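To: structure subgroup
Subject: Chain for Friday's discussion

All,

I'm putting the inputs and outputs inline so they're searchable in the archive.
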Amino acid sequence: MAAASKKKLSTDNFFTEKVRLEKDLMDFEKKILEANDHLTSMENSLAQMHSIAEENHSYYFLKRVKKLQTLYFNLQRKKGYTKDDFDSFYHHLGKIVNEDKIEFLDSALRNRITKVAAKLGEAQIIGQKKKEIDLAGKIRFLAFEVEGVHFLVPKTSYRILKNIPAFKSKLSIKKTIVPLFPGPGFILLDDAKPVLKKNIILIKNSKEKEEGYYFDKLEEDWAISKQSIDLILKKEKSNEKVIGKIRRKGIYYHLLRVD
C-alpha cells in the first residue's frame, strides 16, 4: 500500500512538472516573440545611427556604432544571455553622450573645408591652364608711366632701384655703366630746385646687360601677340629707343626697343 501511494505521488509530481514546464514554455514563447520585436527595433536603431554617422563623415561616432553592432550580433547569435553580455553593451552605449554632438558639426565642417579646398585646387589648376592657354603665342610687356607719359618694354627679369637722380643718360653700378631712358631733355629741370629723383627699372637685354628705365608708377602687365602689335602699332622715328605707339583705352603707350 505504501509503495502504491509513493508511486502515485511520483506520478502526480511528474504531471505537476509538466504543467509548470508548459507554463514556462508559454511564458518563454511570449518573451521570445516579444524579444524578436525588440531585436528588430534595436537593429533598426543601429542601422539609422550608422547611416547618420556615415553621411556626416563622423569617424568618431562611426567607430562607436560599429562596436555596438558587433556586440548586438554577438548577443543575437548566442541566444543565451548573461549579465556580462548586457553590461558590455551598456558600457559602449554609455560612451555615446549628447555632449559629443559637436563632433557631428566638426565632421561636417571638416568635410566642407575638404570639399572647398578640393574645388579651389581644381579652380587654381583650371585657372593656371587657362592662363597658360591665354598667354600662348603672346608677348608680355611691362607697362610704366613717367611724368604722365606711358611706355611698354618687353618683360624679362628685372629689378628696381629707388631715389635715383632723374633723367641722367647713364648710371654707374659696381663699375658697370648702365644706359638710362628717358635721358636729359625729357622734361625741363629747374636748377634752382632740389635734385629730382625717380625710381628705375633695370632690365636685362638680349646680351644679358642691364638697361635702366625711369618710372613713377608700374602699371598692369600686357600680353599681346606679335600679329596684333603689327596691326595696331603706329611707328615712330622721333627716338631710336621708341619703336612706335599703341593706343589702349584712350591712352597712347610708347613701345620701347630693348637692345
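Points worth raising on Friday:
The longest strand covers residues 138-146.
The helical segments are 2-55, 59-78, 83-94, 102-135, 226-232.

D.
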